Amino acid sequence: MFKKSFILAIMLMIASPGFAQAARDYINIVGSSTVYPFATVVAETFGKTTGFKTPKIESTGTGGGFKLFCGGVGVAHPDITNASRAIKKSEIDLCGANGIVEVIEVKIGYDGIAIANSKKTTALQFSRKDLFLALAKNVPDPRGGEKLVPNPYKTWKQVNSKLPDVAIEVLGPPPTSGTRDAFVELAMEGGCKNFDWIAAIEKKDEKQYKAICQTIREDGAYVDAGENDNLILQKLQTNPKSLGIFGFNFLDQNIDKVQGSIIDGAAPTFDTIADHSYPVSRPLFFYVKKAHVGMIPGIKEYLNEFTSEKAWGDEGYLSDRGLVPLPAAERAEVAQTVKQLKANIICN
Hints:
single chain; alpha/beta; 10-stranded mixed beta sheet; about 40% helix
């Protein structure tokens, strides 16, 4: 471990000769578009109430953020990346390959993924099975039997006779988005499991199972709208028959224009996400490069601001912005990890 730490120190100096003297005097943050609004509020508060500069934050998407974050150590690389899903093993391996030894994972709260439409039309009710059948690339043959066919469904009514007879058009995030990762896992895979013969495949071939349950169709029914939720909102206003996928925070901020669909009997609300009765909800995170703490000014103080009760508590200013807080005991545990700067991910 000593040898690895020594090599890391040398890499820090090579990456930027002035790193030890804080060649960059502000925190550089990248990552999730869902976490971006929360991080921005914390960064602005931090900039106004301390002697440190306001952190620079870029909304790159969760996958794009990890790619940048894991690119290396030094002032040329981000200090923190926001994420709307947990880090993957492949991303931990990438960090390790680029000399990043210790990472601090900070779970900040919960968010629901809304499947919303314009308030100009009627709110909809779906099951996760409906969402899988509507959006998966390959689905069980409607004629029966245990075989898959290319998705034949063109309208919602074809999926479920109780749904409207309108074309399936869902605007959602790109493959680099943690929101999309969470949607295919929680909503689509959740619906896919309704077919026992597909669920049985998981025990035999997990890769094949995930390919069936998590692959989105590419024939125009699902429209990649990028990381821009505002663009989705504009298109929902233009075409009230279409649906959009985005985080609860964005829904909450635009509740005068859009409405969340009921999924398996639960609407996306602060309370249903907090008690996990809304089935399409997920935790949110950010990740900190421990080697940068003490090298880039203000990182420790920024972490303390984010994990303070006035920010992420039940009555905190992030709650006002739509972040669903962690339970008090879990907040205390995470805050202690942050206070101790405990690296809970080792990238060997």
